[in-house]
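Suppose a colleague, Dr. K., hands you the sequence of a protein chain of 143 amino acids and asks what its three-dimensional shape might be. Before reaching for any lab equipment, you can write down a predicted structure in token form. Begin with the sequence itself:
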Amino acid sequence: MKHQTNSKIKPNKNIEPPQERIDKSTGRLMVIVALGFDSFQGIIGMLPVVGFILSPLVSLFIWLTFWIWLKLHGVNVTDKIERIFIMWGGFFLELIPLLNILPIWTITILITVSLVQHNDRKKIKEFYENLKSTNTPLTSSIK
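The predicted structure, expressed as tokens, is then:
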């Protein structure tokens, strides 16, 4: 039996609440991976000649890894000035010999993830406040 609909009835538009782009477990995993990268970079940074040559290449790989990972979660690292400053600042600090032994990537990713989560929670809160003030019913998209 085929389901027929009345064409005069207009379907309700689903109002989808904004979602966190980086949940807590993914954020923690990103920070742990950054800590692992920092540990690896600290080890190769202590090697006299090899570390000097490999460290910038490793930094580029790390930056690209996190750029792609954040992009996959809907975070553009170049759309807000604070993210540009944090990500590029972390990258350039990691290029400085001996300074790259510090956990700069861990700090960079921790700050980036924290800012994204904070902004997302703020957008979610504003969404529900606006929804409440307009008395718009929230329809479920669960089928």
